[in-house]
Amino acid sequence: MRTVVNKPKSKTCEICEGSFSLYSFASHIRLAHNITSDEYATKYGEFRKIKPASTRTIKKVTCAICNKEYSSVGMFSHLRDTHQITKDEYVTKFGEYNAKKEKLNVVSTGESGNLICLIDGKRFETPKQLYGYVHRIHQLSANEYVLKYIFNGIQPTCKCGCGTTVPILTHIPYRIDYVSGHNKSTLGFHFSSDSKKQMRQKAVDRLNKDRELGIVSPRHTRKVIFLRVYKNIETYKETLRNRNIDIISDEIDMFDDKKEMLFLCLETRKTFSQRSFDVVSPFLEKTRSKEQDGVSSFIRSIYSGSVIENTQKVLPNGKEIDIYLPDVKIGIEYNGNYYHSESVGKKDSKYHIGKTLEANGIGIHLVQIFSDEWLYKKDIVKEKIRRLLVPTKSKIFARKCLVKEIGVGDKNPFLEKYHIQGEDKSETKLGLFFTDELVAVMTFSQPNVSKGGGEGFVELSRFATKFDYQVIGAAGKLFSYYIKKYSPARIITYADRRWTRSTGNLYTQIGFVKIDETTPNYFYLGRGLRRLHRFQFTKSTLVSSGGDPTKTEWELMQELGYDRIWDCGHLKYEWTTQVKSG
């Protein structure tokens, strides 16, 4: 039989005669009877536990501004509320008033101690003194100091060679050697049989000793692990929802060490069981990881910086970023078209753009790759990633190149090979040649009616360069050639937000000004889960093919078995003669 200790005492309310624990009695009289604890005690007698008199001595401090005396604890609020200055401003002008920090400052200025500050050479007796000094004088946290001056700004990685970053410590050896599971026992090295016997015997001895003392250690129970990591059930459920998973098991089964927990994959509507709280749907893992691993492997092959995968510690709301590169603040999402669609994946028009905006809000450029791009235009996707991360070795300067107008026979194959959207229908096709080799293409077309019209109004439709080179100034030279020859009054162009930075991009460099951000657009998913442009499936076309005219385009397409997927919208740019003259 289990004995409950420290059971709270109960108290009967003199007003309503209800019985309540002492823990909740004060809340009861405040909420139910609208009186304070002091008012109740005055009228009906004291119910609160009388605390023994404190033996703590609180230092009194005289404010140098108003000559009034305050406790060292209350001095902070006094300075803020009465004199409208911060503690640091007061200390700078009148000196330190905190006794502990005065003592620490004395040590900081001395020459004794075994710990040396790598910034200015001062010596300290304890790590606490060192890091306190670094924080106050050099405005660095302990982790920032270790990273910058002990590891020279290079984030330490797992010693197994996988490239995964490891936590920094503020004491020797200042780092964790291996990511959990990456030590010698998982790298083909094995402990000897004698070592295994010794480790096993130590564990058995520890458990036997606990049993003899009547101790059942709680440190490995499921509930303790859960509370240590997730704090509460609502936080855990929110984490699961971000992974498109819901938990079916109730709270009793969740914390029963002998039972597996039951989960529901929201994308496939299938159930599965698992003992661990850190759960990933088994129905999505293989489909997602095979292709995402391909993206990750490519990045690691060209990029030497830190690569973090499937992290939920970057975005403020805890949503996961598939691949995060902290050194350059770039995130990369691999969006499987099937699981990121609207009907099956439950990803509406706000999902992808929402994630992009959240990342942009904390200075991260988030690239989002759709699976048909990786499957069918992998070389182009790789080149776009490469140019984000590493400079191209072979450089060509546009001033050494020649601009020529080219035909469809040159333009279309070039765009199909080097532009992610492929060929287009354009009126003006310009090519940049380096010693008779076509190295860049820019095309211009008449915008459709929905984009406006007017004399001299054109759209920059495509711009692409050859993979082998970094053609410096190519866009500017082709664009200047078009303006001088055709004298347009206004040019617009659109940049895909899944790839393009909102500031400091190619378009602003050649004279465009951002004028709008379009709402997300949708594509229908066809054979092979390729994205198909919605203009192929207008409602009038569907109705003429026998569709119900009372239904929407989306309803008609669902009846035909199609799903759709949303992008992140576009950045709209404009160039005018006024912009040029300005």
Question: How would you describe this structure to a colleague?
Answer:
By secondary structure, the chain is α+β, with helices and mostly antiparallel strands. It has 5 domains: 10-44; 52-95, no CATH class; 222-277, no CATH class; 283-389, Endonuclease, Chain A; 395-581, Aminopeptidase. It is built from 21 helices and 25 strands. The strands form 8 sheets. It has a 7-stranded mixed β-sheet with strand order 15-16-17-18-20-25-21, with helices on both faces. A 4-stranded mixed β-sheet has the order 10-11-12-13, sandwiched between helices. A hairpin with a 6-residue loop joins strand 3 (60-62) and strand 4 (69-71). The longest helix has 21 residues, at 282-302. The radius of gyration is 33 Å and the shape is extended. The relative contact order is 0.05. Mean pLDDT is 82; it is low at 1-7 and 103-110.
- Helical/strand content category: alpha+beta
Relative helix content: 25-40%
What is the fold named in CATH at topology level of the largest domain? Aminopeptidase
What do the pLDDT scores average to?
82
Number of domains: 5
* Assembly state (oligomeric): single chain
* Span between termini: 86 Å
| CATH architecture classification of the largest domain | 3-Layer(aba) Sandwich
Name of the CATH first level of the largest domain: Alpha Beta
Total number of β-strand segments? 25
Low-confidence stretches: 1-7, 103-110
**H/I helix tally:** 21
Strand arrangement across the biggest beta sheet: 15-16-17-18-20-25-21
Query: How would a textbook summarize the main sheet?
Result: 7 strands, mixed
**Radius of gyration of CA atoms, rounded to a whole number:** 33 Å
Beta-strand level of the residues, as a percent range? 15-25%
Shape: extended
CATH superfamily of the largest domain: Gcn5-related N-acetyltransferase (GNAT)
